[in-house]
Specification:
The complex is a heterodimer of chains A (204) and B (524). In chain A, the strands form 2 sheets. Chain A has a 5-stranded mixed sheet with strand order 3-9-8-5-6. A 4-stranded mixed sheet of chain A has the order 2-1-4-7. Chain A has 3 domains: 1-29; 32-64; 75-200, Sandwich (Immunoglobulin-like), CATH 2.60.40.420. Chain A is elongated. The longest helix of chain A is centred in the first third of the chain and has 26 residues, at 35-60. With 204 residues, chain A is α+β, with helices and mostly antiparallel strands. Chain A is 37% helix and 28% strand. Chain B has 16 helices and no strands. The chains are: A alpha+beta (204), B mainly alpha (524). At the A-B interface, helix 1, helix 2, strand 5, strand 6 and strand 7 of A face helix 2, helix 8, helix 10, helix 11 and helix 12 of B.
């Protein structure tokens, strides 16, 4: 997605730059533009730009990252940010002691392909939970706000260690605030764990 | 760029305003007002240029820090300088735009000069407090001091630094609010609300039952409304902080504070951008000898901009999933469609004004033309980022400073620097140099766009913004920063050339004014 967006940006701005250059060069030979054709050009420009924006809006709308639909997640991970670490746990983190415990606990394990819901909040300032792939690419993010819980749903297709960095400036240790979790191959055991978690939350 | 016609300031076209209608008189320029403007505006532009160099060097430091040029220096310095750079630059270009439009508006209204002087004094006082809070107090929350970070310093900055920072913001916001209101009042004295907003163009009554309204007046008015709304909103933010400080147990709502803070920042940045565009609407036709008057399309476009800009700020909160979904979608719609009047009316008309004209290419006109291009280029990056599903990957990565540096540095800043150059040439009588122009423009283009492109490239490769040090998993962020250091160096070199070229004219102006005052005091 990111590289495609960069390519679109460069392509459109190449056209923008070419148009500006063409207009600048046109001042070498003075002539009055035809008002009718200028107005016609403006109408075309308006039509194309508006249609392009509407098309982009319609195409991108279904890709919004907000949790939609009634599908229940396979696994719930509770994530709490505090200066300057992430606490991740399969159990709710209700206070700073539990948060500290979670920061030292072994990484949470998530089976490949399962729908995981991160329930994200903060106990102090605003943070942003950003999930990075093992190769260091941003896969998605959500803000962690004191007093609110933001739900982020993701699926991971490859096993490995995934990193969580903070993308909201949260103080002097912002750049070293991190967490991690492991995406593991789906086994009958992990599938059973996921099902148990789902049932537990369905019942709660 | 085509070769220019030889240019000297005597060729300056500065016709008397011709916006008369049978029902409304035109205001002629008051010689005393002009004299005072010729005194205050060069001071403003000189101060702006020097502060721009200072804050640019701050920015240079930030990218050098990310390049690991200062391995011993503590990261606290990075965040403190980041805060100074952010607040400083955003504020600086707002006041620079205000000073420039004050000068230009004198053709149509009587601008409040007392407010301009007050703005100068207040801005310098506010910036002094800001510099104190960040460089001595190490206050480092970034420019938007997101609640409640200022209250969670972890011992990095002392409480007095927080107080100093808020004293700076209260000073700046108060002064700029009063200045904006004074300017609105001055416009309304000559153009009542429906004329100032060009509503009589929409009903086809312009020239018959209403005056012709210059685009400069219309756009300045449209720019000041969100500006005032933003400053007023800032006081709500300050009030919540103050209550939390005074009332034990009170905790503000984080989501509400976020909305208030981003509304303030969004409005101020857009007001600044529009002030720059207002300068271009007024000045570009003077260089091309073409007219660029308000018509129904321009009036409609700027009223649409006014309506949309007030709601587009929701795009700053896309990643707050608890924000009502309807507001998120509205944020995307308003961000998308606010691009239409900008592109189809302002940028299209700007190109029409230049296309095939007998353009006088000076530093001023080239900067204004390129400023429009920077606005367009940055707008493309902004629209892409305002797509919710794209923002999911770009939010708080380097894509964000990439797009706002494009329309700020290569847009608004060029527009205002173009005005500063024009003013220097006009008041000093020293003509523009072709060689200097070519050198300056080349360095600005290579340095500016190279620096910005590295931001976009890094953003597209998942590099977070506001990281003093990149973790080893994102080590290529350090490499990108090193490349951008080269481009910033080129840009700073261009800026130094520009300051030399423009500065010598300003020295001539100040010297002439000093001699004149001495002569007057000698005669009297």
């Amino acid at each position: 997605m990111q590289i495609e967006a960069f390519d679109v940006f460069v392509a459109i701005n190449a056209v923008v730059g070419a148009v500006f250059l063409w207009v600048a060069l046109s001042t070498r030979h003075q002539h009055e533009p035809n008002i009718k054709s200028t107005n016609r050009l403006r109408i075309w420009f308006f039509g194309i730009l508006t249609a392009g924006l509407i098309l982009a809006f319609v195409l991108m709308f279904p890709r919004m990252p907000y949790p939609m639909g009634s599908q229940k997640p396979d696994q719930i991970v509770y994530a709490v940010g505090m200066q300057f670490s992430w606490g991740l746990s399969n159990e709710p983190i209700k206070n700073t002691d539990q948060w500290r415990e979670a920061t030292y606990a072994p990484p949470v394990k998530i089976p490949v392909g399962s729908l995981v819901e991160f329930r994200v909040t903060s106990f102090d300032v605003n943070h942003s939970l950003a999930v990075f792939s093992p190769s260091g690419h941003l896969l998605g993010q959500v803000q962690a706000m004191p007093g609110y819980v933001n739900d982020l749903r993701m699926r991971f297709s490859k096993p490995g260690t995934y990193w969580i960095f903070c993308l909201e400036l949260c103080g002097m240790g912002h750049h070293r605030m991190r967490g991690e979790f492991e995406v593991v191959p789906r086994t009958s055991n992990s599938a059973r764990t996921s099902a148990t978690t789902r049932e537990a939350h369905a019942g709660s | 760029m085509p070769d220019p016609d030889s240019y000297s300031p005597q060729q300056e076209i500065d016709p008397a305003p011709n916006h008369a209608s049978p029902a409304f008189e035109t205001s002629s320029q008051n010689p005393e007002t002009v004299k005072r403007l010729n005194r205050v505006t060069p001071i403003w532009m000189a101060v702006v240029s020097l502060l721009f160099l200072t804050f640019s060097l701050d920015g240079y430091f930030l990218r050098m820090y990310q390049s690991k040029f200062f391995p011993i220096m503590r990261p606290e310095w990075f965040y403190a300088v980041l805060t100074l750079h952010g607040v400083g630059m955003v504020g600086l270009w707002f006041v620079a735009g205000m000073a420039a439009v004050t000068y230009l508006l004198a053709r149509y209204i009587r601008p409040p000069l007392w407010a301009s002087w007050m703005g100068l004094g207040g801005t310098l006082a506010g910036f002094a407090l800001l510099i104190e809070a960040t460089t001595r107090g190490m206050f480092g929350t970034g420019w938007y001091f997101l609640y409640p970070l200022p209250l969670y310093s972890q011992g990095t900055w002392p409480p007095w630094a927080t107080g100093c920072f808020f004293a700076s913001l209260v000073t700046l916001s108060s002064i700029w609010l009063v200045w904006s209101l004074a300017m609105i009042s001055a416009i309304l004295k000559r153009y009542p609300l429906r004329y100032a907003l060009g509503w009589h163009y929409l009903s086809g009554q312009a020239g018959k039952q209403g005056p012709e309204v210059p685009p400069l007046v219309l756009i300045t008015f449209v720019a000041l409304i969100p500006g005032v709304a933003g400053f007023a909103d800032a006081f709500a933010v300050f009030a919540f902080y103050f209550i939390q400080w005074q009332v034990k147990g009170f905790v503000a709502n984080a989501l509400l504070m976020k909305n208030l803070t981003f509304f303030f920042g969004h409005m101020m940045v857009h007001a600044t951008m529009y002030l720059g565009v207002a300068i271009v609407y007024e000045m570009l036709p003077r260089f091309s000898n073409r007219s660029w008057k308000t018509n129904r399309i321009i009036a409609l476009a700027w009223n649409a901009v006014l309506a949309m800009v007030l709601f587009a700020y929701f795009h700053h909160l896309y990643m707050d999933f608890v924000q009502p979904r309807m507001l998120q979608v509205m944020g995307q719609m308003m961000s998308y469609f606010s691009a239409v009047p900008a592109a189809v009316v302002s940028i299209f008309d700007g190109l029409r004004v230049v296309y095939g004209s007998r353009m006088r290419w000076t530093i001023a006109s080239v900067f204004m033309f390129l400023g429009l291009m920077g606005w367009a280029a940055g707008g493309v990056g902004a629209v892409i980022d305002s797509t919710i599903s794209v923002n999911y990957f770009f939010h708080n990565t380097l894509w964000v400073p990439a797009h706002f540096h494009t329309y700020y540095l290569m847009g608004c800043v060029l527009m205002v620097l173009g005005f500063a150059s024009h003013l220097g040439v006009k008041l000093s009588g020293i003509p523009d140099s072709r060689l200097a122009r070519r050198v300056i423009v080349t360095l600005f283009l290579i340095g500016g766009y190279g620096f910005i492109l590295m931001f976009f490239w890094a953003g597209a490769h998942s590099i977070p913004r506001r990281y003093a040090i990149y973790p080893h998993e994102l080590a290529w962020g350090t490499h990108d920063a090193r490349v951008s250091v080269v481009f910033i160096g080129i840009f700073i070199l261009g800026l130094l050339f520009f300051l030399w070229e423009t500065g010598r004219r300003y020295l001539e102006i100040f010297w002439a004014q000093f001699r004149k005052r001495q002569m007057e005091s000698y005669i009297s």
